[in-house]
Amino acid sequence: MEEMEEELKCPVCGSFYREPIILPCSHNICQACARNILVQTPESESPQSRRASGSGVSDYDYLDLDKMSLYSEADSGYGSYGGFASAPTTPCQKSPNGVRVFPPAMPPPATHLSPALASVPRNSCITCPQCHRSLILDDRGLRGFPKNRVLEGVIDRYQQSKAAALKCQLCEKAPKEATVMCEQCDVFYCDPCRLRCHPPRGPLAKHRLVPPAQGRVSRRLSPRKVSTCTDHELENHSMYCVQCKMPVCYQCLEEGKHSSHEVKALGAMWKLHKSQLSQALNGLSDRAKEAKEFLVQLRNMVQQIQENSVEFEACLVAQCDALIDALNRRKAQLLARVNKEHEHKLKVVRDQISHCTVKLRQTTGLMEYCLEVIKENDPSGFLQISDALIRRVHLTEDQWGKGTLTPRMTTDFDLSLDNSPLLQSIHQLDFVQMKIPATPILQLEECCTHNNSATLSWKQPPLSTVPAEGYILELDDGNGGQFREVYVGKETMCTVDGLHFNSTYNARIKAFNKTGVSQYSKTLVLQTSEVAWFAFDPGSAHSDIIFSNDNLTVTCSSYDDRVVLGKTGFSKGVHYWELTVDRYDNHPDPAFGVARNNVMKDVMLGKDDKAWAMYVDNNRSWFMHNNSHTNRTEGGITKGATIGVLLDLNRKTLTFFINDEQQGPIAFENVEGLFFPAVSLNRNVQVTLHTGIPVPDCYSSRASIA
Predict the structure, then answer these.
(1) pTM over 0.85
(2) Distance between CA atoms of residues 12 and 9, nearest Å
């Protein structure tokens, strides 16, 4: 909660907001501070007089409505201007927060009226102390600005959570501890300020003064003020104008100020904007989480740099001590260079830690403030500030990108001592830069798996200066076995096909050049798909096969049988796919099964020794391999029938199903190797492939019993 405190303080007085109002630029300011920075503009220089005189160029040119202006001039009675003509004649001063503000042209008259009710000079101008946008007030003065009830509620809860001693609200410098609170004025006083500003005479004598603690309780229990319309103070906000982005009352609508605008229910827009702010906070929360992890990484880098420094110094001392007395003078110089590099690395990392910590503190403060705002139950107040908060959240999230979470320094010392020169060359001894390339980094966001293929991407570290001539990618066997090389070359991306389904692979990469080979990268764990998603392969099919439906549907008008294979091959695991018969006339006998990649494509599937199939007509089916027909089984197919093919390479069996019922016994046993789904068609039979299907329950139960 402490990190949110700067969100709750006025940029002018530097204290917690007191009766904050919302300026058209969405920034907040205390109502009293707003009166203090009002500047009276000469009549001849007002925007109204310039428009009346027809002047084409003005220091008060309007800003376009799409440049942060939240109110239209016609609807609210005040406009936003890009220039400020009287600024040079009025000296600037700084608030406690360092923001430049414009003081009043003359001291405000002494009055017992509330600042909100006191009159405002004609043509008064106010400049936002944060974005320096200027605007002219209308006849309503500061009453024309909506009050930020949500911010008041957040400040109340924050102060209650702090549980600090209540301070006087009228002390000019260091606030003293409050001794009383006036329930009518709703102000905490110390004794000197009470005697000076709240004398017990006149109308003030009837005010009730209570102890500060009791005043805090009464303030907490008092009902929250309902936000009312700035144009009609007796009317509560009930609708929301989408174009003006402001709550309005029914009287505003009846007067026709928003007749051509889109108006929605206040409660619906309140919920919508709360949802939008919550969604924006999710993204910012992820950035904050990444920043925390990044800070941990940076702190670990400090420790690692120190450990590497100790290790490097020990190695350097050992090498220098072995080179007799002539090396001792040079040893001190080399150690000095190592220490300098050490300090430089630490300084860079610590500076980045400091910078990132400040940025994270600001982000966390904004998040906590937004979360407190979301807790508010005042729709009108919330909608007055929600757009600005959503923009701030998105802007803060964007600021965390652009390389902010990338270390500016590596932990390695890119130096190596060459101790091979002869003794007569000792005076030339110096550091040489490491010539072995740095360890590549696997780019996790670009690495992925699809079916039984894996795509990996890598890059050199951003601060590496030693070029790599190539890379070596290694994978294990999917069972935790030995690594093997699957790619050697200059590319930084590689796709490995033919992996086992439902298997876990470990991958690693290293770089090499003429000098040597780098260390391995961190190991990346890859999980292939549990079930296969694939289509038919036009590249390997017979030319008479006709494809459609993204290569999931095939047909053949030839009288002779033609073979088409699936794109994916299987060598391990249990796989099941189905084919539906879309067209079946004149009782042909299509065949379904598996085959090697080099199967004959112009004969029925199963005619050669490269295919294992079931061919079926409208009455019965047969199993066939190497032109051997076996296991005639009653029951055929018609249009709409479904043929299932189950390849169990764990048990080395092939089984067929028709309309969810097993067709005959297990068709083939002792099948092993690499198999592709296969179909042979003729005489206008059309089938559609369905993949990614789990194994039938009847087979799963039998397999578990076995």
Answers:
(1) no
(2) 9
